[in-house]
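Need 4-deoxy-L-threo-5-hexosulose-uronate ketol-isomerase's 3D structure for a figure. Predict it.
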Amino acid sequence: MHTTYESRYANSPAAVKQMDTAQLRQEFLIERVFEPDTCRWTYSHYDRYMAGGAMPVTGPLALETIDPLKSNFFLERRELGIINVGGAGVVEVDNTRFELGFKEALYIGKGVEKVVFHSVDKQQPARFYLNSTPAHHTYPTRKVSKQDAEVVTLGALETSNHRTINKLLVNSVLETCQLQMGMTELKPGSVWNTMPAHTHDRRMEVYFYFEVPEGQSVCHFMGQPQETRHIWMQNEQAVISPPWSVHSGAGTSNYTFIWGMAGENLDYGDMDHCRINELR
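Structure prediction for 4-deoxy-L-threo-5-hexosulose-uronate ketol-isomerase:
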C-alpha cells in the first residue's frame, strides 16, 4: 500500500498546435487512475490541480502528502473532493467515518490531518476518484449523495446529447474554496457530452470517463475552438483540460463522466460558448 504521483507542466495553445498524437496523450491523458492498494496522483500545473484514485483492497489506504506539496500532511493547504465509482467504501476523516456508496461524494476541507480509505468488501473494492486544489479557508467535511445534488437535464435524443448533470460538490450545494465536482450521465442513445462546447478562461477542468461499456471508447476533444485536437480514451481514464481549451467528447456508446474544475471563481455558468458550426 503506497502513494505514487507524476507531474504535468502547463502548455500554451501554440505549443499544443505542434503536438502529434503521442505527445498529446503524454501531456494531457491520465491513462491509469486506479491501482490496487495504491493512491495514484497526477499533479497538474494548471491551477495546481490534482486528480487521482485510491483503491484499498487488502487493507486501509491512508492519504499521504507528496513532495511537490512541501507540506506536513496532504490537506495542510488543500481541499479534497471524492466520488466513489466502485464498491461500497468508508472514508475515515480524523475520528469520523463516512460511508460512501456508488456515485456518492464527499468534500473534505483544509486542515484535516487524517484521511483513510477503506473498502467494505475486498472482492468488490471501493474506487475513490479524487480531486484536490489549493485552499485558503477551512470548510466543513460533508457527504453529498445524488439526492442532495443540484440536478439539471439538458440536450435531447434527437441531437444525441440527452444527459443529466448532477452538481455534487459545487457552491450551490456546499461551500468550497475553489474546487467544484459533478457527474454527468448520458441517456441511452446519446453520445455527446458538453455539446455545444465551451471554454472558460478563468477555470481549468479535468474529465474522468467511466461506465464506458467493454469494447467501446470515447473520443475526447480539446484545443482552441478553431484548432481542435482529439484523444481517444478508454474506461476509467481521465484527461486534463487547459483553461483555453474546449472539453467535449463523443462515445461509441453512452457513458458517465465526472467533471472537476478550479480557478478564478465559483460561477458554474461562467463560460464562453462555441457555436457548433464554427468549430474547426
